[in-house]
Amino acid sequence: MPVIGVVEVLTAFAFIILIRAYVGTIVAGELTGEPVTRREGLHRSLARTPSLVGVVILTVVLVMTIPFLVALPLFLIVGVLPVTPVDMISFPVAAAIGGITFAVPFLFLLYKFWFALEACVIGQYGPLKSFRVSWRITTNYRGKFVLIGVIVIGSAASLFLPTYLPEMGTSLASLNPVLNVISSSVSELLSIVWASAYAHIYVQGVVS
Known about the structure:
The structure is a single chain. By secondary structure, this protein is mainly alpha-helical. The chain has one domain (2-207). The protein is 84% helix and 0% strand. The chain is built from 9 helices and no strands. It has helices at residues 2-31, 38-47, 49-80, 85-88, 91-112, 116-121, 127-140, 145-168, 176-207. Helix 1 packs across helix 2 (38-47) and helix 1 crosses helix 9. It comes from Halopenitus persicus. This is DUF7847 domain-containing protein. Residues 54-202 form the DUF7847 domain. The chain crosses the membrane at residues 12-31, 52-77, 89-111, 145-165, 185-203.
């Protein structure tokens, strides 16, 4: 059922966000010389849940709304032209221009707001202040853009591992249950690794 699918997606998303918050709190404590117990880390993560929800909602709204507003003049110009862009240029070129106009600011904002979660949980900032802190950190770490990009891509890829790996083994039907367990375990381990990496970069950015 569609409703069940939506609930499963939202639950998985919330679990990933809380894991990132929890691991980030623990790792940040170790890096700053102020160790946090597992219970304290869980308590802090849960206590910051309302602010985390605000950060997630604002991130979605901003990364979708601002690129649309940036691309809006292009759409308006296209609307008043006597001919369609497809008549002037080929469809692939027109589609590429429209896609790039939206995708560039979308990816830029997503990158600039990427450490807002760490700022919210580790730094104990509110949603708006978390965005400002994330913006400053990513500005200071422009030289490590590739590194951050690799970590982001790796963490995103690990989300699809539990579903993709078993599909690779469809010819080995008897091993599918084993592959499911292995892929889920690897995905959870990688989630912890990526969350630790985000926390490490965040603490470095704040200290520096």
